[in-house]
Amino acid sequence: MFGVLHLRVTSPSTLTDEVVGLLDGCPGVANLAVLPGSSLRPPGDLVLADVARESVDELICELRRLGVDVSGTIALETVDTAVSVAAERAEDDAPGEGADAVIWEEVVRRTDAEAALSKTFVWFLSLAAILAAIAVILDSSILVVGAMVVGPEFGPLAGLAVGLVHRRYSLLRQSLVTLAVGFAGAIVVTTVACLVAAAFGWIDASVLTSPRPLTGFIWRPDRWSFVVAFIAGIAGVLSLTSAKSGALVGVFISVTTVPAAGDLALALALWDGREAAGAAAQLGINMAAIVLAGVITLIVQKAAASSVRRFPARRAAALDDLLDRHPEEVLDDGLGDLTEDRDLQQRGSERRHRGRDRLGNGDRQEHQLDHRVDLQDEEDHSVEEQPETETHPRA
Length: 395
Hints:
Layout: E1 4-11, H1 13-24, E2 29-39, E3 44-52, H2 53-65, H3 68-71, E4 73-78, H4 85-93, H5 104-114, H6 119-138, H7 141-150, H8 154-166, H9 169-199, H10 206-209, H11 223-241, H12 248-252, H13 257-269, H14 273-325, H15 327-333, H16 342-385
Antiparallel strand pairs: 1-3, 1-4, 2-3
Helix pairs in contact: 5-8, 6-7, 6-9, 6-13, 8-9, 8-14, 9-13, 11-14, 13-14, 14-15, 14-16
């Protein structure tokens, strides 16, 4: 159970009925409230709803189709705890699982924020690269892990994947610029730091030529470099798109992008072209593998999400059509017995109840109509039976 999210929609009055109808017809909506005229800017109504995570993305797509994002506002808030039977029922009725549900607008906006170029990003990346260079100097695997944790580079790498899959070319350009400027700045800062250390006699060329069993892999890329980075890319995107984010730290310590940048800067400072070329290759392979894995993972997730949305819609349409064409047979035979699928049985039960209500309403309306006709006939009959009265002029 991954709870519900609070959806706040600022809607123009002309769209409120459609917005309310959309939310009211969604099985994943637990609570729904409308505050007419509550919004001053933009002017309109305020619609509030608690929605199961599984239904949020589809609702946002439909709200955008109505143009609410242009003429109003769509806002989402996380609900940490919701003690409500209605919320539990909404989570059960919504198609799919909360852990697998992806809110694509949230993913795009979060990635856009993390891929932004800033001084903080450059400084964090520079500090991580300096730690990586010290790790190579001391041949310390612990410092390598520390450099991986500090490095913020996964944000723009994920931005490349999201930009490619969702065709957000502005996000794609922003991510490329952030990576280029960030790594260039980090390598320059680390190279200067290594030159200062060499000037003080703290390091020399022997640092790179001596055996380094714990960090020598950084500048020697092989097929496992690609495999490890590819797996890390999958884990990173899954943590970005799902409700679970605990694996994100594991992603940061699984690939050697930052250590390769630090080793490259150290090799440039000590004029070791062979190690610089190897570290640059390692950096390129890891970044390419992460982006490729991210693109493939996002494509698979989009296909899975559309299939989850499409199949319940087809089922509901088929049941509605069957109910409209043969209401009596559906009520007599029991639509839930036609299949062993639990979801379809539940849908069938709902349709049977709605069908009974529909037929009951029809009978009541027909009875009311007959009653009004009888009253009209009695009134006409009483008028006909009234004796004619003679009128005499006054004397």
